[in-house]
Amino acid sequence: MSAPEVQYDVxxxxxxxxxxxxxxxADRSMPVLRAIRDRxxxxxxxxxxxxxxxxxxxxxxxxxVRTLQAGGAEIRLCASNPxxxxxxxxxxxxxxxxxxxxxxxxxxxxxxxxxxxSVLARAPELVLDxxxxxxxxxxxxxxxxxxxxxxxxxxTTSGVVRLRAMASxxxxxxxxxxxxxxxxxxxxxxxxGTAQSSIDALLxxxxxxxxxxxxxxxxxxxxxxxxxARLTGLGARVIVTEIDPGRALDATLSGYAVMTMAEAxxxxxxxxxxxxxxxxxxxxxxxxxxxxxxxxxxxxxxLEIDVAWLGANAVERRMEVRxxxxxxVQADGRRLLxxxxxxxxNLAGAEGHPAAVMDIAFGIQAxxxxxxxxxxxxxxxxxxxxxxxxxxxEIARLKLAALDVTLDTLTETQLAYLTSWSS
Length: 423
Fold this sequence. Notes:
- By secondary structure, the protein is an alpha/beta fold.
- Helix content is 43%, strand content 16%.
- It has two domains: 8-185 and 355-402, Rossmann fold; 188-348, Rossmann fold (3-Layer(aba) Sandwich), CATH 3.40.50.720.
- The chain has helices at residues 16-27, 31-43, 59-70, 87-95, 109-120, 133-140, 157-168, 183-206, 222-233, 245-253, 261-264, 283-286, 307-313, 345-348, 355-374, 389-402, 412-419; strands at 8-9, 50-55, 74-79, 100-102, 126-129, 151-154, 176-178, 214-218, 237-241, 257-258, 270-273, 294-297, 316-322, 325-329, 335-339, 384-385.
- Strand 14 and strand 15 form a beta hairpin.
- Helix 1 packs across helix 4 (87-95), helix 3 (59-70) runs parallel beside helix 15 and helix 15 packs antiparallel against helix 16.
């Protein structure tokens, strides 16, 4: 295939100037990706490789795209979440960087599907996914493209859950690297980044005082742990709900109240869901909540809070009572406040992770994509694969170097002690 002309469906190309400034600003806080970009530009590991990407269209994502493009890739990009799309960033990618982009803020479901189709139109060799939408489309409507795929990367826990279910059912047809599952990314992206950006979205949307508030955190994985710690630092009284005994014990021994959602529902002033599952907060919980309870979801899909039930059963829905806040009036007069339509709040109600956080996540993504191509076609199994440990260590090393942090090294005596059973 010859290189195509740039194609696009974006809101307004006139926004490109502002988008370019936003991308450059983010790049200042992304030294890991810059170092990888410089190497890719010299070595061209993606020369002529067609990449389809379904990611959040943000300035940070734009710098990942620039990095892969510097390595020779031909990229087509669509949005994994319409509410997270920055229209100026999308325009800048088209105008300033010559990337084919299909993304509009608040696009409807029909347009969203058309954008997925446009991204897959060039028969990709690699796919970069954020919640498995490209993988799902490939395995349902584009099965003819599967033989030409070298592999893919998945950015989110929700997407990895889907992919592992596909693999368990023997339905997955190409190797996918679970980019979200590395020690460095779990620390920086999930525990630190999502916690900060979710609280940022909550404060932007409600301007409420968290000190003294009862905040219910549903799920005590990496994200829940980070949220609970930072909410406590702001003076909130944190309640945790969990289904896993080990995580519930961890939360209890960390000093948080642990109970069921039914027990927490009448107590909570704010509810934050971070489980990756569906119907975590549902009808029986809504019935117990206070007037003015705030509901927000930091998981990828808008299923953790039963938004459909709220829409069907509220006697009145008041849109945008504040930016990104809808009010659902119950039959008894209580008002439940939903942030960002129940979608991923930190992206829909704020700007997502700080660039310094995405520097780590996208660095791992870029090196994982390069690793997939280093393997001969067919050499890797059609399965969900872990990020090679060397990649995680390299990203941590690059980040520490950028922060001017130095480490101790083992002496020969110490190394001998650690590697000999008779020492």
